[in-house]
Amino acid sequence: MREDLLFDAAAALVKILIVVNIALVIGAYMSLVERKVSAWMQDRIGPNRVGPVGLLQPIADGLKFMFKEDVVPGHVNRVLYILAPAIVLVPAFLVLAVIPFGPPMQVLGRPVQLAIADLDIGILFVFAISSLGVYGIVFAGWASNSKYAMLGGVRSSAQMISYEVSLGLSVVGVFMATQSLRLTDVVNHQADGTWNCFAQPIGFLVFVVCAFAETNRLPFDLPEAETELVAGYHTEYSSMKFAMFFLAEYTSMFVFSSLVAVLFLGGWDLPFVSQAALAPLGNWAALIGFGAFMLKALAFMFFYVWVRWTIPRFRYDQVMTLGWKVLLPLTLVNIVITGAWQLLAKAGGR
Amino acid sequence: MAKVVDRSPLRWWEALYLPAILSGLGRTFRQMFRGNITLQYPEERPEIQDDYRGAPGLVRDDEGREKCVSCQLCEFICPPRAIVIVPGEIRQAAADERSGPDNVEKAPKEFFIDMLRCIYCGYCEEVCPEEAIFMTNVYELNGASRAELVHDKPRLYEIGGTRVDAIKKWKGK
């Protein structure tokens, strides 16, 4: 009994260590990928001075952020100003706790889930925690006591709250099909049948659009909107506090990429290869699944950057129109269609 | 002839915007593999045209003589008054030392161009009756002090170098 407890605690600690490190490394290197891909799309070369083809650039950037002067302007609300970067960063990392990175492994004869916590209410946890991130942005905008930051914070709160609705409703169809909120169940359901991006194309589309809005990425980067708001809510921030906003953005991009992979792209499921065929490989199957999951998540990260240089920023009222008048009705239609389909299938089954 | 722009209402698949977004994505994806058009500056240099108006410099003729005769026209025409010339004496012995590198006319004793004032207009080159001052293709000017960017005579001749012209005005003089 005590051994079980000890083993679980050790396994959880190791998983936390691995996941947090993966997220940090991806967050850091995403800044390089972003700059490189941007450069390629604009016929440039991108960072190529630090290390071979610029591969050490994130380390140089990190060092630079650490040694920069941490300016706290005199006109800010100090408590909220210092608190805000932490409030943005912590939820971004917390959400990683429920994301399943691969199929269960066998370690010392005991099964280990490749998720820090495989909660029954996985997706509810994700939405509950990731919504907290908006507080950090609003605090940052408010505490900075500057018009650009303020406008960024206001826009961010309106945008994130609007898209949260469609985001939440867009996955309802998935859970109606799966009959479970547990993310591992969602993946297993897709492994047995088709991936949700084919089974729920409307839900997939709406989720992807909302993922861009929730992470403040172009074409919905109105809270930052360099051309209008200097840098938006983090205008007054410098040094490591600015880096924390930066890291939070990339981490939440990774979170949403993982969610897209888990909810709609089959998680660790390989196309054309059934889980049963991989079962004899044992732990290697888990690692292959982990690789497949990471590939999907990273491909979606690339998609983030790709879209950034394809679609220009929306006007603010267009963002609201799209969110409330297009995406929200679409999600409701999706729920109705899914429900009707299930009823029909049930009736046909009998 | 006025060009009529088609403003017919969007068809239903156009109103979805998705086909346009997809074709845009395809466009940006193809763009990634087009190679770069940028130069790796310190290692690679842009090609500078002959008529580029870079830093002005003084030139010597093919016998190594100064062409400048201290007429000071460039000093007077210079819009930002960047040029200061201190004329030298006419060499009395010039007629006897034809083979030497000395000038026939009076050479400048001092010649300063303040590159912090120069606006690269090229009037000095245009006004010079002796074709002694030219805009060169030198475009990298930097210094640790203001004094360093006031080019004196040796520096100006270093920039200008030797220019071989078809007309040998001082040949045999």
Q: Can you give a write-up of this model?
A:
The complex is a heterodimer of chains A (350) and B (173). With 350 residues, chain A is mainly α. Chain A has one domain. Chain A has helices at residues 2-41, 57-67, 78-94, 122-130, 133-143, 147-170, 172-178, 183-192, 196-199, 201-214, 226-229, 239-263, 275-278, 283-308, 316-349, and strands spanning 102-107, 110-114. In chain A, strands 1-2 form a two-stranded antiparallel ribbon. The radius of gyration of chain A is 21 Å and the shape is globular. The termini of chain A are far apart. Chain B has 173 residues and is of the alpha+beta class. Chain B has a domain at 56-160: Alpha-Beta Plaits (2-Layer Sandwich), CATH 3.30.70.3270. Chain B has 5 helices and 5 strands; from the N terminus they run H-H-E-H-E-E-H-E-E-H. A 3-stranded antiparallel sheet of chain B has the order 2-3-5. In chain B, strands 1-4 form a two-stranded antiparallel sheet. The longest helix of chain B is centred in the first third of the chain and has 14 residues, at 18-31. The radius of gyration of chain B is 28 Å and the shape is elongated. Chain B starts with 11 loop residues before the first helix and ends in a 13-residue tail after the last helix. The interface between A and B is medium-sized, with 14 and 15 residues.
- Unreliable segments of 5+ consecutive residues of chain B: 94-100
Compute the average pLDDT of chain A. Answer: 83
What is the alpha-carbon Rg of chain A in Å?
21 Å
Quickly count the domains of chain A.
1
Q: Structural class, judged by helices and strands of chain A? A: mainly alpha
State mean pLDDT of chain B (0 to 100 scale): 83
Enumerate the strands of the largest sheet of chain B in spatial order, edge to edge or round the barrel.
Answer: 2-3-5
Largest sheet geometry of chain A? 2 strands, antiparallel
Oligomer kind = heterodimer
Characterize the overall form of chain A: globular
Count the beta strands of chain B.
5
* Helix content bin of chain B: 10-25%
- β-strand percent of chain A reads under 5%
